[in-house]
Here is the input.
Amino acid sequence: MEGIKPRFEFRTWAKNFGKVEEKLYALSKCEMIRESKEIYIISAGNSENNTKIRDKLMDIKVFVQEKKGLEQWDPLMKGEFPMSATMLKDEVFPAFGVEMQELTENEYSLDSFLRDIIYPHSQLIPVQVFKRRFAFTINDCITELGEIQFNGATQQTVAVESVDLEAILKAKEMLGLNDYENLNYLRSIKRVIGMEPFPGMFKL
Here is the structure.
């Protein structure tokens, strides 16, 4: 991973993107369709470490900085199940930002990690995520339209990524996204499961 400059990202969500989707297909052809099933571990202890599991591989990314309304994330840890108790203690739980119960085994399979550690924890929630992603290139930026399910709740996402901030801002303008909120996966899931309020939820 050394020498690779982390990309900045704009990501937003809606039930349906309507004219934004029309502009996306008008500006670029779909280059690839990918589907995946993942588990995100959502922690009440922080919103800066994004933890997901796919194909028994754990990937944790850390928030680096925000510039011009865009977010930059960088890999923090990659691990594979079965995973040692030492790695869980030294790398995984510090990223969750919550206390860890006593570990009784030397290593944990994915099933035992979820069953014995995550599900019983009062501040951690595993969320089943299904992704169907359509890849495009807009203004030389990696762009995607996604159909996403969080524990079965369906919505769409549009994301634009690049190391070039100005290219992302231009792509946003081209797609008509300037009035949309930038919201990463972690915080979007927190809103869906009720761990974070939606904007204006408590206003009368």
